[in-house]
Structure formats: C-alpha cells, structure tokens
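Pinned message: reference record for Disease resistance RPP13-like protein 1 isoform X1
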Amino acid sequence: MAEAILYNLTADIIFKLGSSALQEIGSLWRVNSELHKLKDSLSAIQAVLLDAEEQQSKNNQVKDWVLKLQDVLYEIDDLIDESSYETLRRQVLAKHRRTRKQVRILFSKFKSNWKIGHKIKEIRERLQAINEDKNQFSFRKNVIERRDDDERLRKKRETHSFILEDEVIGRNDDKEAVIDLLLNSNTREDIAIVSIVGMGGLGKTALAQSIYTHYGMTNNDGQFQMKLWVCVSEEFDLKIIIQKIIESATGKKSESFLQLDSLQCELRKQIDGKKYLLVMDDVWNEKKEEWLHLKRLLMGGAKGSRILITTRSEQVAKTFDSTFVHRLQILDASNSWLLFQKMTGLEERFDNQEAKLDQKNSNLIKIGMEIVSMLNGVPLVIRNIGGLLKDNKSERFWLSFKDKELHQVLRQEQDALKEMQLILELSYKYLPSSNLKQCFLYCALFPKDYKIQKDTLILLWRAQGFTQPNGNNDDNYLVDIGDDYFMHLLSRPKGLGKLTNLQYLCLCPMEHMVGEECPYLQWERKNSC
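Predicted structure (tokens):
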C-alpha cells in the first residue's frame, strides 16, 4: 500500500532495536529491559498498522491515534540516534581522557545514564498506552504483509543485459529455439512479440541475456540495427518504461521532468524505421489497455523488429499479443548434475577421468547425485544449494543436509513454488553467523543492480553495528572483518552481486532474485536480531 509510511518506519525501528549495536548500547546504558518492552509493543502495533493507516481517512479517532503513534515513533528514532551518538562520543573520550578528567567523566556517565534511561522509560510508557488504545478500534491484523513486501521488491527490481556464456548451463536448445523465432520466423506482423514463460528460478532472465549478447543479434547480414533492454517488473508505468527504452537506445538518462508527449516523440525518433530488438524483462502487467498505450509507440520500427518478453504468467503472454510463446522447463537430470558440479567444485576435482577416485570422493558424488534428484531441476535452487555444499565438502555434512534438512522440506508435500521457497531458505539459514545474515539482508534495501563502492558498503555495515567484533573496536580490525564478510557473501551463488571492478559492486542479493519466493527472508530483514 502506498500510504503505509508508518508501517515501514515501524519495521525499520524494530530492526534497529534488534541489532547487535543497539543491544550493546542497551547494556551500556542499563536499559535492555526497557528496549525489549519497547520492541514488543512496536511489534504488536505493527501487526495492525496497515489497517489503521487505511482507516484513518474515514475515522477521526483512528486518525488521532495514528498521529499520536507517529509522534512517538519519530521520538524513538531520534532517541536511537542520540544514544548511538552519545555512546560513540564516550568511546572517543575514553581513548583520549587524562587522569584528572576521570572523576568528571564518571559523574557525566551517571548523569547521562539516568537521563537517557528516564527518557526511554517515559517513551515506552506512552507507547504502551497507545498499544492498549488500539484495542478499541478492532483493527484487522496484517494478513497481506508478505504480498506488500513482494510488490515493493518487484517494483525496485532491476536487471541488465550482460551475462557470461559459461554461466548458462543446459539452455542451448532453448536458446536456439528462441533465436530462431526472433530471426527466422515468417509472420504477418511487422513487429512480432515472443514471450519466454516459466516459473521463478528457471533462468528466464539468464536465457534472455544469453540471447541478447549472442553474436547473431548484431547488424551483420541484415539483423537488428538496434538492441534495447528494459526491466519492467511489477509497476507498468508508461512514462518510466519509455524513459528506460530511450536510455538504452542513447546511453543517456532522459530528463525526469519531461512530459510524456516529449518522451514519446524522442522514443519514436530513436526507433522509427529501424529494425530493433527490444527485451522487456520480468513483466507482470495483465492489463491490456496499459500494454496497448506502449505498443502503439513501438509500431514504427522496421519490418522484422522483435519484442522479447520474459514473464512468469501465461496471462501476460496473452495480454501482450504474443506471436510465439516459448515455455521454459526445468533442467533435465544430466544438465542439473552439470550445474551442481560447477557450483560445488566437483567438476574441478573429477575432470581427470584417469585418476582413481578414492572411496570418500565416490561417496560424495553418490550423495551429490541423490541431492540433485531432490532439487527438481530448478537452476536457482541448484545454484544456491550447490554453493552451500561447496563450503563444506564432508560426507557427514552432505548426508545430514540431505537426510534432515531436505527431507524435512520435501515431506511437507508443498506445491513446487512453495517447495522451492523452503529449499532456498536453507542457503540463507546456513550462513555461518548472525552478523553475516544481517549484512546480507541489509543489501536487500538497495535496488537490484545498484552500484555501490565496496568500501562504502562495508562502512554502512559498520555504522549499523553488523561488523562489531567481541571486545575489539580497533578501526583496522573492523575494516578487516567487513572485508572478510564482503568476500564471503560475494563468493556465494546469488550472493551480494558481481564486482564490476575492484572497487564497485553491482548488487543483486538473493532476495531480489526470487522476489515473492522468499517471504522468510523479508520477515528476517525486519525482525532479525
């Protein structure tokens, strides 16, 4: 919901209250008990907050309740910042204090403890009263929280056109089939539309990237004069999509203040009379009229132009008047095993067929094949589970994972999508520390493919308290820990993202990759501690 501002603020405050940094501050100020009570009250209020924000426009009493809550939330947020600042100030003073100042600093410490502790208690009591007052309104508890998070993730999701060829395994037949539809099909339409349809995790975007970068797509032999890539996602906003197409065509970002009429003129100027390939990745729109508004502007291309769509929905393919639909299937057993080998590193160890495998390695292969048979040929699942197992190539660990974790998921007899979600959650749960989990989840706050400096990201983690070691606050040590966390997460499949060079990272944490398949990760991001 667009109006759910306080809901998101509440979620952020709960997250901060659960962080290791705030727990440390709570111990320092001796207010951990009050902070826990504060967090409990906030969690109870958050459960009904979406309904409250919706009702406030119709009920003045609810509006007054929401305004009181808003004031307290801002005070809590300010108090967290104030406490963090005061703690940091003390640490700086402690490093540089002299003997003659110790008495004064000690007195100041007791005074500040009392002041901040008193303020936290006063705010907590006000929040408790607000929490009790909510019962008079019979608010509905939030039952669509997961969906809201999904939609917000899809809206900010972004993809790009590049992929290394060896990253795409088992899709040669699919690639050739779609390329044939794009280049060789005879259709009555001057501009035909081809849709790649399949559930999340099958690799639709990767296939589209592989096709986009294929040498046969260039202008040689009369092929496409222009290639365009646009990630659409949940929000099918005509103006934004046109801006993205223009940016892809020119390499320059169009001015955001331009009116729609100016943008459509520029779009037609770029594509009219040219044979183009437009990839529209991750499309969710099922409203015909919204598509037709865009379609009219794209019809000026030369005969043979093509629009390639990736989507999870058959209905989207119908809405977009697809001339051809290519339905992406799961990987077969052979390609599933090849992908698993690549992700676990088994291929490097066993490529030499003349080498005699010892009993341990033979057993790992046997266990690995049994695990692959349980993953249903879904590339995203195989990549993540393979990356998890790569970190610990022991028979005992692999057997335990297969017989306990995977068996527990599969015996629930969920549908394929839910089953994939549960399996993907395992790769997150097996991150070796809570700090690593927090660092990973923090990256999901950024849009996918957002470019950020490595050092900046580590500093942000540090500011949130995610890289605090036990008993050692040395700056260089903190930087080293942040660097270790960074490299660990970067090395995992569908981890943080990809380095564009030694300094910049293109973010794509797994939560963005799977969107609605990982509600557990979204819940963890708001409630982890």
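Pinned by admin. Summary line: Residues 98-111, 143-156, 498-502, 509-529 have pLDDT under 50 and may be disordered.
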